[in-house]
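Usage

Read records sequentially. Each one opens with the input sequence:
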Amino acid sequence: MRVKPIYLIRYGLPGAILLAGVIVILVGTGAIATAAGIVLIGVAFMVYLVNVLARLAIASQEDRDREQRARDQFAASRRRDIPASSVEHRDAPPGSVERQFRRRPPGRSQRPGGGRQRSQH
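and closes with the structure output:
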């Protein structure tokens, strides 16, 4: 059974650095050797963490791509199935351009008073 090269980088590199740190701690004498071993162990965990985060980023990007394809497909089916004149912008916030200029059914005015100006006399 052959090991894939990516697994050697993903797990072998942090493992080798971790092993080197442990060896430096066990074989070396003095505070400097102990500190160097602890630093190597910390670096091994950081290399492993960078690999995990890189894999999460790749998986996240694949999810975003899949969601974008679904949105594009949904938008294409809506454009084809629903005529633009029948779509009202009910979800538009008050005062937005979509709400101000949407089509109204015949006989209904945009003003509350039926379109008449009332005099203030």
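Summary fields computed downstream for this record:
- Helices lie at 5-27, 31-81, 97-100.
- The radius of gyration is 33 Å.
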